[in-house]
Write a structure and sequence with these properties.
GO terms for molecular function: nucleotide binding. It comes from Ethanoligenens harbinense (strain DSM 18485 / JCM 12961 / CGMCC 1.5033 / YUAN-3). This is Oxidoreductase domain protein. The protein is α/β, with parallel strands linked by helices. Helix content is 36%, strand content 26%.
C-alpha cells in the first residue's frame, strides 16, 4: 500500500482524491496547507488522519511514502525537491517545473534517492488517448498536427479589473503557455517526439505574461501547429492530418470524441464518450511505477521534451520567470 499526502487544497486535489478512492494501491494519510486550520479542515473532509502546515514535517514523516503536489507552478521545484530528498515518491501537477534545468535537477535527485517522479499529465493517460495512438496508422503518412486549447479564463475578467490572480502572474510561473498550452505540447511530443525546431509567438499582456500564443513545430516529414489561449474560446477541434485522412479530436486536453474523416469522405467514429475529468488513469500509472521501482519511466522523457519546448518558446516570446534567474536565458 502506497501511503500518500497532498500539497494543495484546490479543486484539482479534490479530483485527485476522488480518483484515489477507486485505487486499491494507495491510501490517503495527510494534507498540507500553509494554514494549519485549512490543512486540518481539508484532511478531515477527506478522511485523512494527518494535517501539516510545515513542509519539512511532512517530508520527514515516516508514515508517508508519496506526495501529490498541486500547488502553483513556481512552488513545484522546491517542494518536489524536498520530498524527493526525503525518499518520497512525487506526482506533480503540470507544468512539472518552471523550466527544463529545474526538471533535470529533480530527475537527478529522484535517481539518487531511488524514488519515482512523474508529471500529472492526465490527458495522455486516458482511454481516449490510447484509442488515438492505436488508430494513427489508418491515416497513412502523417503530414500535420493541429492541437488547440483556447479557453477564456474567468480570472481574465479580474485581470482586466486590475486584480492579478495566480493564473496571470509571472511570479508563479504561470500564463497561457504554462497553464494550458502545455496540454498541446505534451501530447505532441508523446506522439511524435522532439521536433527539429520551433517558432513561437504570443500575445503579451501588460504585466509581461502571455494571454495567448502559437507554436509552429518542424519535423522531418510533418508540421505541427499548437494554438492556446486564456483570453478567447475556440469552437474548433484539434486534428491530425495524414495522406489517407484526418483524425478529429474533440478536446486535446480531454480526448473523449475521436473521428476519422477519410480522403474519400467516409467517416469512422473511434470514440464518443461523455466528457470526464477522471485522474484515476494517471494515478494508476504512477502507482505502477512505484510498485515496480521504475524510476526512469517513459513519462519522464516526455516531460523533458515538453520543458525544452516550453523554454525555447518562452525565450522567443520574451517571457521570463523569477525561477529562470541563473538557469536559462
Amino acid at each position: 500500500m502506497i501511503r500518500f499526502a497532498t500539497i494543495g487544497t484546490n479543486f484539482i486535489t479534490e479530483w485527485f482524491l476522488e480518483a484515489a478512492k477507486r485505487c486499491d494501491a494507495v491510501e490517503y494519510l495527510g494534507a498540507y496547507s500553509r494554514s494549519a486550520e485549512k490543512a486540518r479542515r481539508f484532511a478531515n473532509a477527506h478522511g485523512a488522519p494527518l494535517a501539516f502546515d510545515d513542509l519539512e514535517e511532512l517530508a520527514a514523516h515516516p508514515d508517508i511514502d508519496a506526495v501529490y503536489i498541486a500547488s502553483p507552478n513556481s512552488f513545484h521545484y522546491p517542494q518536489a525537491a524536498r520530498m524527493l530528498r526525503h525518499g518520497k515518491h512525487v506526482l506533480c501537477e503540470k507544468t512539472i517545473t518552471a523550466n527544463y534545468p529545474e526538471l533535470t535537477e529533480l530527475i537527478a535527485v529522484a535517481k539518487e534517492h531511488h524514488v519515482v517522479l512523474m508529471e500529472a499529465m492526465r490527458s495522455v493517460h486516458t482511454r481516449g488517448f490510447a484509442v488515438l495512438q492505436n488508430n494513427l496508422h489508418k491515416l497513412g503518412t502523417i503530414r500535420r498536427a493541429t492541437f488547440q486549447y483556447c479557453q477564456y479564463s474567468s480570472r481574465y475578467d479580474n485581470y482586466k479589473k486590475g486584480i492579478i490572480e495566480n493564473a496571470f502572474d509571472p511570479h508563479y510561473a504561470n500564463g497561457a503557455l504554462m497553464d494550458i498550452g502545455v496540454y498541446c505540447v505534451h501530447p505532441l511530443v508523446k506522439l511524435f517526439g522532439m521536433p527539429l525546431s520551433i517558432h513561437a509567438d504570443a500575445l503579451i499582456l501588460q504585466n509581461g505574461i502571455d494571454g495567448a500564443g502559437t507554436i509552429l513545430a518542424k519535423y522531418p516529414e510533418m508540421q505541427a501547429e499548437l494554438l492556446y489561449s486564456k483570453i478567447t474560446n475556440s469552437a474548433l477541434p484539434s486534428q491530425i492530418q495524414g495522406e489517407n485522412g484526418s483524425l478529429l479530436i474533440e478536446e486535446i486536453p480531454n480526448p473523449h470524441k475521436l473521428t476519422i474523416v477519410y480522403r474519400d469522405g467516409t467517416t469512422e467514429a473511434l470514440l464518443n464518450e461523455p466528457e470526464a475529468r477522471d485522474l484515476l488513469s494517471e494515478l494508476n500509472v504512477w502507482a505502477a511505477c512505484i510498485q515496480s521501482g521504475k524510476i526512469l519511466h517513459p513519462n519522464l522523457a516526455c516531460s523533458e521534451m515538453e520543458l525544452r519546448i516550453l523554454d525555447e518558446a518562452r525565450k522567443q516570446q520574451g517571457i521570463h520567470f523569477p525561477s529562470d534567474e541563473g538557469r536559462i536565458f
